[in-house]
Write a structure and sequence with these properties.
Largest sheet of chain B: 8 strands, mixed
Oligomer: heterodimer
Distance between the termini of chain A: 23 Å
CATH topology of chain A: Rossmann fold
Radius of gyration of chain A: 24 Å
Number of domains of chain A: 1
Largest sheet of chain A: 8 strands, mixed
Helix content of chain B: 40-55%
Mean pLDDT of chain B: 90
Structural class of chain B: alpha/beta
Helix content of chain A: 55-70%
CATH architecture of chain B: 3-Layer(aba) Sandwich
Order of helices and strands of chain B: EHEHEEHHHEHHEHEHHEH
Strand content of chain B: 15-25%
Strand order of the largest sheet of chain A: 3-4-2-5-1-6-7-8
Strand content of chain A: 5-15%
CATH superfamily of chain A: P-loop containing nucleotide triphosphate hydrolases
Number of helices of chain A: 17
Number of helices of chain B: 11
């Protein structure tokens, strides 16, 4: 079975990734491709537009988007993904123990690599199901950018690597072994910090985690291969934080086997505003228009300077998406967003 | 605000937390105080507002009496073991400290208590009049604030348990500690702020000092009706753009008890300029 084309939308939080992912998915579905959009935390109105209800959350089950015959949407739930991963890779009794462990949720929720890995594994599962031609992925904010692509590798290193071996003994040993080796200075320290009861529980937990290694490791390699064939779109705005994040992503590219297709510059202002002036008249309206134009023309200049600076630094195609006056709330609006941004529409239809 | 010992600045990602944390530090410095800015998430984000390109664990001095540092987790753990637990030689090898980090990360609450502990210990040591924390986004910050209670539950005997109790008391004390919550006049940040206010109100882990609306657009005395009648020109489009953003702004700020409104800074390029200007505007707003 042929796996789907994967389109990954990445970038800093608050730049409009979720809306853009939805818009791109609507556009590919309209072109006749069976499309799935995987979203992370959509705003209420966008979730409504995609037909994602509260009931669908925490199930990782895609549902059909109203008004879009070929488009499905799913909201990713990391905890549910980890439960599935554990059930898939661990022996039943170990899986039960892990899922009941108070540390399991904490780890799944807090390690950025664990979050990204869960997202990656879920994406791989959808992509390999053969149910969709295109899978559009909105990456989780906590694990955006490069982390998303490093996660399979990091997970493999963490679970199978020297570190856990060192902590839990050479082979998966009898339970509680870790605590009998308190002679090690590290464990003495950990003992002072955490107390022996907690340390013992943690050790048991980590020993169980290690047993996931074989399954997780081969799966991680498959995800890695899939990701390296994906099309990556990096989103930024003119704010310094998101631009830095986008720059970081591009400079880390040699480390991962991924080539980005394009940089999407969201909330672009028209260049024509830079030199525009308001009307010359003396009415109150003319004066208000003039003063307002002056403000926005200085803002449009800053916006253009930011775009030029990014384009000079990065050698990828750049698509400017205009700053919308209203948040998008329906499928028609989403479709419109792509067709109104010529560069973006080129990239999506390629 | 400036009379407190510890001020924590947070809000949804992308609303200008770092700009405002540095603006607050500038105000304190102008009032003759010795300030430490403690960056808990991305040190670079804080640094650029001070005109630098990065921060280290060891504080760097800016503008005479503003000191700024990045709370690196590994260093924070090492210092915690050495200074707080009086462990003689911490973290001798790389594997050792990495392994320690895994244990600390796996036990719920411990990592948060150690990171949050750093600015709090800096407050206790008394080298600074004010410690300003450029905190993680509000959702994450809540788990930092809840961490001391979590630790008290999961750690039956460890030394970290006693310290978390003291930390929680410091965070709750309105005389010493305040939260500056930042939002922008947009739908999602406002929604998240509303949720955060409810959680803060019910959990009472810290006192809200100031709720700031950042990047507030100035009013524009042109009606949509007038705009419709105008010729198709950039000035008309800019006015239409501005009035629709204003409508979103009013709708999103409507239900929030905003204390201070800081303006959208049109055309201001560098982050350091942004913070300096916000400090002026903040003073004017009081």
């Amino acid at each position: 079975m042929k796996s789907s084309d994967i389109l990954i939308v990445t970038g800093a939080g608050g730049v409009g990734k979720t809306t853009l992912s939805a818009a791109i998915a609507v556009a590919t579905a309209e072109q006749g491709a069976r499309t799935l959009v995987i979203t992370v935390d959509p705003a209420r109105r966008l979730a409504d537009a995609l037909g994602i209800t509260m009931l669908d959350r925490a199930t990782n089950r895609p549902s059909r988007v109203p008004d879009a015959p070929l488009l499905d949407a799913v909201m990713l739930d990391v905890t549910a993904s980890w439960e599935a991963i554990t059930a898939r890779h661990a022996k039943p009794e170990v899986a039960d123990r892990l899922l009941e462990s108070p540390y399991f949720r904490a780890v799944a929720d807090r390690f950025p690599a664990a979050q990204s890995y869960a997202a990656g594994e879920q994406v791989a599962e959808f992509a390999m199901s053969g149910d969709w031609d295109v899978v559009v992925v909105d990456t989780p904010p906590a694990a955006g950018g490069i982390d998303f692509f490093m996660a399979p590798r990091k997970m493999r290193e963490l679970v199978g690597g020297r570190l856990l071996r060192w902590l839990t003994g050479a082979r998966v040993p009898g339970r509680n072994l870790i605590y009998r080796t308190t002679a090690r200075p590290m464990l003495r320290l950990a003992d002072i910090l955490l107390g022996s009861a907690l340390l013992e529980e943690l050790a048991d937990f980590l020993i169980d985690v290690r047993s996931l290694y074989d399954g997780l490791s081969s799966r991680a390699l498959a995800i890695d291969r899939l990701m390296s064939q994906a099309t990556v779109l990096v989103v930024t705005t003119d704010a310094p934080g998101p631009m830095r994040e986008a720059g970081r992503f591009f400079s880390a590219l040699p480390e991962i086997d991924v080539s980005p297709a394009a940089l999407i510059f969201n909330r672009a202002l028209p260049d024509s505003w830079i030199t525009a002036r308001g009307p010359m008249g003396n009415t109150a309206l003319d004066e208000a228009l003039r003063a307002n134009m002056e403000l926005w023309s200085s803002e449009a200049r800053r916006n253009r300077d930011a775009r030029v600076a990014m384009a000079a630094r990065l050698e990828v195609p750049m698509a400017a998406v205009p700053w919308l006056r209203r948040p998008l709330s329906d499928v028609a609006g989403l479709a419109n967003l792509v067709s109104s941004a010529a560069d973006l529409s080129d990239i999506v239809h390629r | 605000m400036l009379e407190r010992k510890l001020v924590i600045v947070s809000g949804k990602g992308g609303v200008g937390k770092s700009a405002i944390a540095v603006a607050l530090a500038l105000r304190a410095q102008r009032a003759g105080k010795r300030v430490l800015v403690s960056a808990m998430s991305d040190g670079v984000g804080t640094a650029i507002h001070l005109g630098a390109d990065h921060l280290s664990y060891k504080p760097t001095t800016f503008y005479g009496d503003i000191h700024a540092m990045e709370v690196d987790r590994a260093y924070a753990l090492e210092e915690y073991l050495k200074v707080q637990l009086r462990v003689p030689q911490a973290a001798p090898t790389k594997t050792f400290s990495k392994a320690m980090q895994v244990l600390v990360d796996t036990a719920p609450g411990i990592r948060e208590v150690i990171s949050m502990g750093k600015p709090i210990f800096d407050t206790w040591q008394g080298h600074y009049d004010l410690v300003v924390v450029d905190a993680p986004p509000i959702g994450q910050l809540m788990s930092y604030l809840r961490a001391p209670a979590v630790v008290a539950n999961v750690v039956p005997t460890g030394a970290i348990k006693d310290q978390s109790g003291r930390m929680a008391a410091m965070l709750r004390d309105p005389e010493q500690t305040a939260l500056v919550l930042v939002t922008t006049p947009e739908e999602l940040p406002a929604l998240e702020t509303k949720q955060a206010l409810d959680e803060l109100e019910s959990e009472r882990l810290i006192n809200l000092g100031v709720l700031i609306a950042n990047r507030v657009l100035p009013p524009l005395d042109i009606t949509p009706h007038q705009i419709e009648a105008l010729p198709d020109r950039p000035a008309t489009a800019a006015a239409a753009h501005h009035t629709s953003l204003l409508a979103l702004q009013d709708a999103s700020l409507d239900s929030l008890p905003i204390d201070v409104r800081l303006p959208y800074l049109f055309g201001v390029h560098t982050p350091a300029e942004v913070s300096a200007q916000l400090a002026d505007e903040w003073e004017d707003a009081l």
